[in-house]
Amino acid sequence: MAQRLNDLADTLEAEDPDRSHLRQWRRDWHRLSAECERIRHTIDAEIENGRMNPRRTSSGSDEALPRAREAIAVAERSMDHLRSMTRTLDYALDSGELGNLPAAFRPRFSAVLRAVATATVEIGRASDTDPNLLDAKIDEATGELDRVQQEERTTLEASPAVHALQGTLLTDAGRLIADLQSGWQSVASA
Protein backbone atom coordinates (compact mmCIF):
# COMPACT_ATOMS: atom_id res chain seq x y z
CA MET A 1 0.00 0.00 0.00
CA ALA A 2 2.83 2.39 0.79
CA GLN A 3 4.29 1.88 -2.68
CA ARG A 4 0.89 2.50 -4.29
CA LEU A 5 0.42 5.68 -2.25
CA ASN A 6 3.83 6.96 -3.33
CA ASP A 7 3.06 6.05 -6.95
CA LEU A 8 -0.27 7.86 -6.72
CA ALA A 9 1.54 10.92 -5.32
CA ASP A 10 4.01 10.79 -8.23
CA THR A 11 1.18 10.55 -10.74
CA LEU A 12 -0.67 13.45 -9.17
CA GLU A 13 2.44 15.63 -9.37
CA ALA A 14 3.18 14.71 -13.01
CA GLU A 15 2.67 17.37 -15.68
CA ASP A 16 0.73 14.89 -17.79
CA PRO A 17 -0.62 12.13 -15.51
CA ASP A 18 -0.76 8.72 -17.13
CA ARG A 19 -4.44 7.78 -17.54
CA SER A 20 -3.65 4.11 -18.16
CA HIS A 21 -1.61 4.03 -14.96
CA LEU A 22 -4.58 5.33 -12.94
CA ARG A 23 -6.90 2.78 -14.52
CA GLN A 24 -4.43 0.01 -13.79
CA TRP A 25 -4.44 1.04 -10.13
CA ARG A 26 -8.20 0.90 -10.05
CA ARG A 27 -7.94 -2.72 -11.16
CA ASP A 28 -5.06 -3.35 -8.72
CA TRP A 29 -7.09 -2.11 -5.74
CA HIS A 30 -9.72 -4.75 -6.50
CA ARG A 31 -7.03 -7.43 -6.82
CA LEU A 32 -5.41 -6.31 -3.58
CA SER A 33 -8.77 -6.42 -1.80
CA ALA A 34 -9.18 -10.04 -2.89
CA GLU A 35 -5.63 -10.74 -1.69
CA CYS A 36 -6.50 -9.25 1.72
CA GLU A 37 -9.48 -11.59 1.91
CA ARG A 38 -7.24 -14.58 1.15
CA ILE A 39 -4.69 -13.47 3.75
CA ARG A 40 -7.41 -12.96 6.37
CA HIS A 41 -8.71 -16.50 5.77
CA THR A 42 -5.17 -17.86 6.11
CA ILE A 43 -4.64 -15.97 9.37
CA ASP A 44 -7.98 -17.18 10.75
CA ALA A 45 -7.11 -20.78 9.81
CA GLU A 46 -3.75 -20.47 11.60
CA ILE A 47 -5.39 -18.99 14.70
CA GLU A 48 -7.87 -21.86 14.74
CA ASN A 49 -5.05 -24.36 14.11
CA GLY A 50 -3.21 -22.90 17.11
CA ARG A 51 -6.29 -23.38 19.28
CA MET A 52 -6.75 -26.97 18.18
CA ASN A 53 -3.04 -27.85 18.36
CA PRO A 54 -1.49 -25.69 21.07
CA ARG A 55 2.27 -25.55 20.97
CA ARG A 56 5.04 -23.58 22.52
CA THR A 57 5.74 -20.33 20.65
CA SER A 58 8.69 -18.04 20.58
CA SER A 59 8.53 -14.73 22.40
CA GLY A 60 5.68 -12.58 21.09
CA SER A 61 4.75 -14.85 18.19
CA ASP A 62 1.38 -15.76 19.77
CA GLU A 63 0.38 -12.09 19.38
CA ALA A 64 1.55 -11.82 15.78
CA LEU A 65 -1.50 -13.44 14.16
CA PRO A 66 -4.11 -11.29 15.95
CA ARG A 67 -2.02 -8.19 15.11
CA ALA A 68 -1.81 -9.34 11.49
CA ARG A 69 -5.59 -9.81 11.36
CA GLU A 70 -6.10 -6.26 12.62
CA ALA A 71 -3.50 -4.91 10.16
CA ILE A 72 -5.36 -6.59 7.29
CA ALA A 73 -8.61 -4.96 8.46
CA VAL A 74 -6.85 -1.57 8.43
CA ALA A 75 -5.53 -2.29 4.93
CA GLU A 76 -8.98 -3.20 3.64
CA ARG A 77 -10.60 -0.05 5.02
CA SER A 78 -7.72 2.03 3.67
CA MET A 79 -8.11 0.51 0.22
CA ASP A 80 -11.73 1.61 0.14
CA HIS A 81 -10.56 5.22 0.47
CA LEU A 82 -7.73 4.72 -2.00
CA ARG A 83 -10.12 3.20 -4.54
CA SER A 84 -12.39 6.22 -4.13
CA MET A 85 -9.45 8.61 -4.48
CA THR A 86 -8.17 6.84 -7.59
CA ARG A 87 -11.66 6.80 -9.13
CA THR A 88 -12.00 10.54 -8.42
CA LEU A 89 -8.64 11.27 -10.05
CA ASP A 90 -9.53 9.11 -13.06
CA TYR A 91 -12.79 11.01 -13.58
CA ALA A 92 -11.02 14.34 -13.04
CA LEU A 93 -8.43 13.42 -15.63
CA ASP A 94 -11.14 12.41 -18.13
CA SER A 95 -13.11 15.63 -17.56
CA GLY A 96 -10.04 17.87 -17.63
CA GLU A 97 -10.68 19.12 -14.09
CA LEU A 98 -7.40 17.66 -12.84
CA GLY A 99 -5.53 20.19 -14.95
CA ASN A 100 -7.59 22.99 -13.39
CA LEU A 101 -6.42 22.28 -9.85
CA PRO A 102 -4.36 25.13 -8.40
CA ALA A 103 -0.66 24.56 -9.06
CA ALA A 104 0.19 24.28 -5.38
CA PHE A 105 -2.57 21.78 -4.52
CA ARG A 106 -1.17 18.76 -6.32
CA PRO A 107 2.27 18.71 -4.64
CA ARG A 108 0.77 19.53 -1.23
CA PHE A 109 -1.80 16.76 -1.56
CA SER A 110 0.98 14.43 -2.74
CA ALA A 111 2.82 15.25 0.49
CA VAL A 112 -0.25 14.04 2.41
CA LEU A 113 -0.21 10.77 0.45
CA ARG A 114 3.51 10.30 1.12
CA ALA A 115 3.05 10.96 4.85
CA VAL A 116 0.25 8.38 4.95
CA ALA A 117 2.53 5.93 3.09
CA THR A 118 5.20 6.19 5.79
CA ALA A 119 2.56 5.49 8.45
CA THR A 120 1.32 2.39 6.60
CA VAL A 121 4.86 1.04 6.50
CA GLU A 122 5.01 1.27 10.30
CA ILE A 123 1.65 -0.47 10.76
CA GLY A 124 2.64 -3.27 8.39
CA ARG A 125 5.88 -4.23 10.12
CA ALA A 126 6.18 -7.87 11.16
CA SER A 127 7.76 -6.83 14.45
CA ASP A 128 6.03 -4.77 17.11
CA THR A 129 5.39 -1.24 15.99
CA ASP A 130 6.89 1.57 18.04
CA PRO A 131 3.75 3.37 19.21
CA ASN A 132 5.46 6.73 19.63
CA LEU A 133 6.96 6.56 16.14
CA LEU A 134 3.66 5.57 14.55
CA ASP A 135 1.76 8.25 16.43
CA ALA A 136 4.32 10.78 15.16
CA LYS A 137 3.90 9.51 11.56
CA ILE A 138 0.10 9.74 11.78
CA ASP A 139 0.37 13.19 13.36
CA GLU A 140 2.64 14.23 10.49
CA ALA A 141 0.06 13.03 7.95
CA THR A 142 -2.69 14.84 9.85
CA GLY A 143 -0.61 18.03 9.91
CA GLU A 144 0.00 17.80 6.15
CA LEU A 145 -3.73 17.33 5.56
CA ASP A 146 -4.58 20.27 7.83
CA ARG A 147 -2.19 22.53 5.88
CA VAL A 148 -3.72 21.52 2.54
CA GLN A 149 -7.27 22.00 3.86
CA GLN A 150 -6.42 25.42 5.22
CA GLU A 151 -4.87 26.48 1.92
CA GLU A 152 -7.82 25.10 -0.04
CA ARG A 153 -10.23 27.17 2.06
CA THR A 154 -8.36 30.35 1.23
CA THR A 155 -8.22 29.69 -2.53
CA LEU A 156 -11.25 31.54 -3.82
CA GLU A 157 -10.47 31.83 -7.52
CA ALA A 158 -11.09 28.13 -8.27
CA SER A 159 -14.30 27.02 -9.95
CA PRO A 160 -16.96 25.12 -8.01
CA ALA A 161 -15.95 21.94 -9.87
CA VAL A 162 -12.34 22.35 -8.73
CA HIS A 163 -13.44 22.99 -5.14
CA ALA A 164 -15.59 19.85 -5.33
CA LEU A 165 -12.63 17.85 -6.65
CA GLN A 166 -10.35 19.16 -3.91
CA GLY A 167 -13.01 18.53 -1.29
CA THR A 168 -13.55 14.95 -2.43
CA LEU A 169 -9.83 14.18 -2.37
CA LEU A 170 -9.37 15.85 1.02
CA THR A 171 -12.36 13.99 2.47
CA ASP A 172 -10.99 10.65 1.29
CA ALA A 173 -7.56 11.50 2.71
CA GLY A 174 -9.11 12.54 6.03
CA ARG A 175 -11.06 9.30 6.25
CA LEU A 176 -7.95 7.33 5.35
CA ILE A 177 -5.95 8.99 8.13
CA ALA A 178 -8.81 8.51 10.63
CA ASP A 179 -8.98 4.80 9.76
CA LEU A 180 -5.22 4.49 10.17
CA GLN A 181 -5.45 6.14 13.58
CA SER A 182 -8.30 3.96 14.84
CA GLY A 183 -6.86 0.89 13.11
CA TRP A 184 -3.47 1.42 14.68
CA GLN A 185 -5.12 1.37 18.09
CA SER A 186 -6.77 -1.95 17.16
CA VAL A 187 -3.45 -3.39 15.98
CA ALA A 188 -1.69 -2.24 19.15
CA SER A 189 -4.35 -3.77 21.42
CA ALA A 190 -4.48 -7.11 19.55
Description:
The protein is mostly helical. Helices cover 81% and strands 0% of the residues. It has 6 helices and no strands. Helix 1 (2-13) packs antiparallel against helix 4.
Number of strands: 0
Helix fraction by DSSP (H/I, runs of at least 4): over 70%
Please count the helical segments.
6
What is the 3D form? elongated
Distance between the termini: 21 Å
Strand content: under 5%
Rg from Cα: 19 Å
> Which structural category fits the helices and strands?
mainly alpha
Overall pLDDT score: 84
Largest sheet: none
Order of helices and strands: HHHHHH
Residue windows where pLDDT falls under 50 for at least 5 positions:
none
Question: Could you give a short description of this structure?
Answer:
With 190 residues, the protein is mostly helical.
Secondary-structure topology with pairs:
Elements: H1 2-13, H2 19-52, H3 61-95, H4 105-123, H5 131-154, H6 160-189
Helix pairs in contact: 1-4, 2-3, 3-6, 4-5, 4-6, 5-6
Task: Provide tags for this entry.
190 residues, 6 helices, elongated
